[in-house]
Amino acid sequence: MLTKQQQFEFIHNYASEFSISLLLKLTTVSRAGYYKWKNSQPGQHQDRDLALYQLILDVFNESKKTYGVRRIKTALLNKHGLIINHKCIRRLMNKYGLVCVLPKPKFKRRPQPFGTIGNILNREFSAEKPLQKLCLDITYIKVNHPYPKWIYLCAVKDLYNHEIVAYDVSPTQNMMQVFRVLNQVSKLPLADQAILHTDQGFQFTNKYYMKRVADMGLIQSMSRRGNCWDNACIENFFRHLKAEMPHFGTSETLEDVSMTINEYINYYNHKRIQTKYGMSPIEFRLHAA
User: Fold this and answer.
1) Are 231 and 137 in contact (CB under 8 A)?
2) For all residues of the chain together, what is the average pLDDT?
3) Which residues make Cβ contacts (< 8 Å) with residue 158, sequence separation at least 6?
4) CA-wise closest residue to 220 among 234, 199, 238, 235
5) 270-282 per-position pLDDT tens digit
6) 218 and 198 in contact (C-beta within 8 Å)?
7) How distant, in Å, are the alpha carbons of 146, 161, 214, 285 from that of 183?
8) Is the Cβ–Cβ distance between 115 and 222 less than 8 Å?
9) Omega before 146 cis (within 30°)?
């Protein structure tokens, strides 16, 4: 009487000449047992891992090394129709050293006066239609040459689909930059009673800013004092921008940084998968329309 091991080897040796069903009838082992034995043999997992790794690597490189496990999982489904467990993707990324690193969120307390503007948004970071709820903020990005300095990005995010609908890059942080962004927003088909939310930065407590927002028919909303989470949606975009930007260009000069920011925001809006929707912001907006 042959052992199970010998029967498995018998089926494997003649599988190229006869059907598995016929060979199973000549033995006492089950089909499930045979395939479990086959998959446990050296080289089986390695070949399968290598094939899947190549697909993961293609997605990872296409995202310029900015995609993590969840976005790679969604991209494999969208591009190849593959449903891969996130644990498997994480295991292969660890095995082959694919690392997508994002810094821990860092928020600053903003001691500026609160004024009379309330927190209308109240952390309700979802909208039923485009340009109904907007968040605006300013961040700074380091420039290395000809000497170390900062460049400032003022951006507006639509909470409906996370799209960056207006932005301005400037070597100086002042009210003119904010007004340039507001001029872009004024040309958009804003929803009735749209909300524009900011933190308590000095630009947003400025009386001219408040008047401009009111003239545009927008409802002004402002975070509570020292509460960074009230504006976390736009801060989240800035966090990804700073972490992923180095893969899109250099930060040597003002011109380099400006071009890189433009390239990244174009990629973010048109191509970067939002895990909530499984597609990019503009793809989601068009799909929903």
Assistant:
1) yes
2) 87
3) 127, 130, 131, 133, 134, 164, 165, 281
4) 199
5) 999 998 889 999 9
6) no
7) 32, 21, 13, 22
8) yes
9) yes
Task: Judge whether 247 and 65 are in contact, CB under 8 Å.
Answer: yes
- What is the Cα 159 distance to its own chain's centre? 14
Question: Residue 90 and residue 98: Cα distance in Å, rounded?
Answer: 9
Task: Say how far apart CA 72 and CA 10 lie, in whole Å.
Answer: 40
The secondary structure of residue 247, as a DSSP letter, is G
The tokens of 178 are what? 């904010």
Structure tokens belonging to residue 120: 């209308």
Q: In what order do the strands lie in the sheet with 195-198?
A: 163-170, 149-158, 133-143, 195-198, 219-222
DSSP states along 180-208: HHHHHHHTS-PPTT-EEEE-S-GGGS-HH
CB 238 within 8 A of CB 162: no
Write the DSSP symbol of residue 104: P
Assigned token pair, 108: 């600053």
Q: What are the pLDDT digits (tens) for 32-67? A: 888 887 777 765 566 678 888 899 999 999 998 889
**pTM, full prediction:** 0.70
Q: With both helix axes pointing from N to C terminus, report the angle between 31-39 and 44-62 in degrees, rounded to the nearest 10.
A: 60
Residue type, position 225, single letter: R
Per-residue pLDDT of 134-155, as tens digits, reads 999 999 998 988 888 899 999 9
Q: List Cα–Cα distances, 191 to 123, 149, 277, in angstroms.
A: 19, 38, 22
107 and 235 Cβ atoms separated by less than 8 Å: yes
Tell me what pLDDT residue 80 has: 86
Cα atoms found within 13 Å of the Cα of residue 86, Cβ hemisphere only: 8
